[in-house]
Amino acid sequence: MLRPPAVRAVPTEVRHWHLAVVAAYAASGIAFSSWVSRVPALAQDLVLTPGGVGLLLLCMTLASFVSVSASGLIVIRLGSARTIQTGAALVGAGLTLLGLGASVLRSPVAAAIGFAVIGLGTASWNTASNVEGAAVERALRRFIMPRLHGSFSLGTVAGAVVGAWAAAAAVPLVWHLGAAGVVVAATVVTAGFFLRADAGRRPSAAHDAASSPAADGSPDGAPAEAAASAPSPGGRAQVAAAWKDRRTVLLGVMVLGLALAEGAAGDWVALALADGYGVSHAVGAAGYSFFVAAMAAGRFLGTPVLNRHGRVLSLRACAVLAILGLALFVLAPALWLAFVGLVVWGLGASLGFPVGMSAAADDPVHAAARVSVVSTIGYGAFLCGPPLLGFVAEFTGVRYSLLTVLVFVVLSLVLAGQAAQRTVAPIRP
Fold first, then answer.
1. What's the total number of domains in the chain?
2. Which of 13, 138, 197, 402 has its CA 20 to 30 Å from the CA of residue 169?
3. Which residues in the chain come in under a pLDDT of 70?
4. Is the omega angle on the peptide bond into residue 203 within 30 degrees of 0, that is, cis?
5. Region Disordered: which residues (predicted)?
């Protein structure tokens, strides 16, 4: 006799798997906000203009773009668990090198290499985490991707708070970023032993979905079984086919706009507050903490909204909030209104990336390839954003350069319909 969904037991190994994925997302957030919160100190130590900071960030985004472009093949060949562990180790090493280059060697070249190593590790790590997250969703039979990305946001809050304290206490970058690198690498390498090493690999991701019964005990897994039994192309063929899929490409463009709204905050909010509103570096770092706290809240509270209203309406509401919050932050006549704008902006940026990744992974057979394509296009925001905003800032100042982001968020608003659910094995909220 089948049990109702409310009392369906979750196996212990699945719970451990879920927690390990949460740890991987949270550690990624800590790594990201650790260096982001110290951008003003980095610019000061290396005597850089906004354009110079943009060029340094370009080194990271170029490396990220190379890494994310190959991430589908990497995950298919190595499995997501090993990819996550390797990526975290690279990020830890890159953070340490960045700190050494900035505060000890005082070398922009060394700092650029550190950023490049961070980019190489982060991009494949993030793609593999999204593949793992989608596999956990299928195993649990409920939507959890926004909350997984919420764990990333909680990690960014923790990293930003520590970063604000480090900025206020004038802790040298080498000690702050070095410690963060060790914590991140050790946490993820340990958590990796509880991940499903075959998630994303051919053909076991499909098998995972096929072998998991629907939450209500109905035979909804049948389509997935058919997909799993069909011949599965090799890694290169899967990635090439994903690039030709119209919905996948448009999803990537949709994610690009909202990813830029998120990434622009990470790269420039602290500096925009310091330069545009005349506050200290510590207040600038605290402003970024407000943004990521709002984004974390949006990801946790947005999951029931997503379940109730669906992907399309949720994404459109987020895009509108991001537009309003960003405009308020830039145009606010008072600092407190700018902080209100940061909160609204953070709420608006909260669901774009996780919902886009979940939509790309609707078909478990092609999840790794399609997630890598959407991630690659989304990383175009991180590739084009820092230099674009840096060069615009040379003429308008950092604060007003952020208005450029509005154009891309409007594009995301227009393309939100591409995220409508289209699954092989339905996920039941």
1. 1
2. 402
3. 1-9, 197-234, 382-383, 386, 422-429
4. yes
5. 205-234
